[in-house]
Amino acid sequence: MPLPESESEDLQVTTFDEEESADLRRHFVRQATRLTLAFALLFGAVFFTFWWSGSAVRFGAARVADRAETTWRVTGTVRDGVTHRPIPWASIADDPAGQPPFYRTDADQSGVFELKTLPEPHRIRVTAPGYKSVMVRIGRAWFLWLPKGAEELDIAMFPD
What is the CA radius of gyration of the chain? Predict the structure, then answer.
C-alpha cells in the first residue's frame, strides 16, 4: 500500500548536514527575535528616561523663570469632621507661606472642589466660616512625579 504524498515527504531521508542546517536556522530565528525584543525594550527605556528627565528639567526651568504650568489637579470634598456633611463654599488655596505662584478655588454647594496647581510637594490651606482652617500636604517629590498628575482628597474640618 503506497503512502500518501504528505507522509512520504515527512519520511524523506535527510543528511546530518541538512538536519544541522535546519536546526541552526530555527536557533538563529529564535535568537534574532530575542535580540530584537531586547533592543526594543532597551530603546523604549532610554527614550522614556530622556523624556522624563527632559520634563523634569523643563519644569525646573519654568519654575525658576516664574512660568510654571498648573499640571497637578487636586479634587475632593470638604466635609464637617463631626457630622460628615459637606461644607459648601469652602476656600482651598496654596499655602501663602510656600513659594509663589499661589492658586486657589472654592468648593461648590456640595463641598466638591477642583484645584489646579503645581506638581511639586507643598501644602494647601482649606478655610470655611465657622471652622478651623486645615493644612493638607499635596504633590510628589520631583523624582516620583510625571509631568501631569492628580490626587483626590476628602478633607475633614472641625467647628471652632
Answer: 31
Q: Is 160:131 a contact under the CB 8 Å cutoff?
A: yes
- Answering whether pTM is above 0.90, one says no
Tell me the residue type at 138.
I
Could you count the other beta carbons within 10 Å of the beta carbon of residue 126?
24
CB 113 within 8 A of CB 79: no
pLDDT digits (tens, 9 = 90+) for 10-68: 667 778 888 888 889 999 999 999 999 999 999 999 999 999 888 888 888 888 888 88
- Topology given in CATH for the domain delimited by 72-157: Immunoglobulin-like (2.60.40)
What are the residue ranges spanned by the domains of the chain?
1-67, 72-157
Contact between residue 126 and residue 92 where contact means Cβ atoms under 8 Å apart: yes
How is residue 58 annotated by DSSP? H
Helix/strand/coil percentages in the chain, nearest 5: 35, 30, 40
